[in-house]
Design a protein that fits this description.
66 residues, alpha+beta, two-stranded antiparallel ribbon, 35% helix
Length: 66
């Protein structure tokens, strides 16, 4: 078998990993609060620069008008 399936926590740590040699069904309970806390800790909005993306986010028709 291949694949080496794994389950990752909202913080990016490997919680469970299949052996890769046998069939397995993995389950993991993750609390909603853990997911929310992890998402809040991402600094994506701090580094966001929408003025840079305006050209690539514009509809194609608008770009052709220029």
């Amino acid at each position: 078998m291949s694949g080496k399936s794994m389950m990752i926590t909202p913080r990016g740590k490997v919680a469970l990993q299949a052996s890769g040699t046998e069939e397995a069904v993995l389950t993991l309970d993750i609390s909603r609060e853990d997911v929310i806390a992890a998402r809040r800790s991402f600094a994506i909005f701090r580094d966001r620069r929408p003025e840079v993306y305006s050209v690539i986010a514009a509809p194609v028709e608008k770009l052709l008008e220029q």
